[in-house]
């Protein structure tokens, strides 16, 4: 089986580094993007199998990015998990079209289970 590709967008380099190490140790190919305004172009140029998206980022927020993904026919089908420390982040994420939500600080096992459920539905967790 070919490695599944996950694109992670967060404005915190530390979170990008931790998620990249974690996901690569699980066998995923990881692409990180710190600038939310570049994300749509990156997704189109190098389509991932799943996107992890921070909700609160400067210039273009995660829910704005997610809405742009959902209206673009080329990429609207991609599963997106939103990460956020916001108390109402789950509501914002689902309203914007997210396939899942994980609160920050996130539990790594919970995050991996949500990723596996979207990418590897045949895998029993």
TrEMBL record:
UniProt keyword Phosphoprotein present? yes
Q: Which residues carry this modification: 4-aspartylphosphate?
A: 54
The record's section on InterPro entries has:
Bact_response_regulator (IPR050595), CheY-like_superfamily (IPR011006), Sig_transdc_resp-reg_receiver (IPR001789)
| Species per Swiss-Prot/TrEMBL record | Chryseobacterium gilvum
Keywords, comma-separated and alphabetical: Phosphoprotein
Its signal peptide is: none
Keyword Membrane recorded: no
Q: Which domain of life is it from?
A: Bacteria
Pfam families (UniProt xref): Response_reg (PF00072)
Domain named Response regulatory: residues: 5-119
Q: What is this protein called?
A: Response regulator transcription factor
């Amino acid at each position: 089986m070919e490695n599944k590709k996950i694109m992670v967008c967060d404005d915190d380099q530390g979170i990008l580094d931790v998620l990249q190490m974690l996901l690569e140790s699980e066998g995923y190919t990881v692409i990180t993007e710190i600038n939310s305004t570049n994300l749509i172009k990156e997704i189109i140029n190098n389509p991932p199998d799943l996107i992890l998206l921070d909700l609160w980022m400067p210039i273009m927020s995660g829910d704005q990015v997610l809405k742009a993904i959902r209206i673009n026919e080329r990429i609207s089908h991609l599963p997106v998990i939103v990460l956020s420390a916001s108390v109402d982040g789950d509501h914002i994420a689902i309203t914007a079209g997210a396939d899942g939500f994980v609160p920050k600080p996130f539990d790594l096992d919970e995050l991996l289970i949500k990723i596996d459920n979207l990418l590897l539905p045949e895998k029993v967790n």
